[in-house]
Design a protein that fits this description.
By secondary structure, the chain is of the alpha/beta class.
Amino acid sequence: MQLAFNQFESPEESNTDKKTILILHGLFGSKRNWQSIARQLSEHFRVFTLDLRNHGESKHTDAMRYEDMADDVFQFITDHTLEEISVVGHSMGGKVAMHLALENPERIRKLVIIDIAPVQYQHGFDDLINSLKALPLNQISSRQEADEYLKTSVQPESLRQFLLQNLKNSEDGFRWQINLDAIQANIDALMDFPDDHRNMQYQKSVLFLKGEKSDYINHQYERQIFKIFPNALFITVAGAGHWLHAENPGFVVNEIRKFIK
C-alpha cells in the first residue's frame, strides 16, 4: 500500500549529505502528531512522517498485521530510493519499526523505539473503540459537539482531544480517518509481536526511550529486548508517560538527534 507522507527538509544542506529519518506514529495517531518534532529534526536530517495503513490520509483495508504495515514502509523506502535510513517509531509504530529492521537489517541504519517493547500487551480498547463507533457522525456539526458526546465515555480530556484529531470534516459531513472496524478486528494482533521474530536479532544500535511514569517498558521487558536487540540503549524521560514525545519534546528531539547523528 502506498502511504501518505509529509517531507521535512532544510535547504541549507545538500541532499547527499543528509541522513534520512522515517517517523512512524502509534495506534490512533497520524503523521500530523509528529510534524513539530520532524521540523526540528529537519535542521540536520531529511525527515519523512508517514501515515500507517488505516490511519490519517492513508487508505483503509481489512488487513492490519505487523507484516503488512512493515511491508508498506519497505515499499515506501523502495519507491523513494532511500539510503542511510533510521526509523523512529512510537508504540504501534515502534513495533512496525522493529519488524521492519529484523526483516531488512541491511537497509535500516539505526532505530529509535519510543515506549514499546517486542512483547504481548493486554488491552482495554474495546470500550474506547465502541464509544468512537457510536458517535452519531450525521448529527454533529463540529468537533466541539463530538467532544460533548464523548465526554462521559472517553476520559481523560487529553485522550479525547488526541482521538478527535482523527475526525475529518468533508462535504459529506464528519468521518473518522482511522479505520475503527479494522483496528477492532486486529487489536489482539496489534497488542502482540510476531512469534517468529522473537528468535531473530538486529545487531545494530537501537535507542529505547521510555517514560518514567509509563509501564510499557519494565525490567522483564528489557530482558526480552536485549535478546532481540543486543545493542539496545535505554534512556528514561523524566516525568513523562507513554506520550513522552508530546510531554517532553525538547528532550526527545535532542536524544534522537544525538543518537542518529
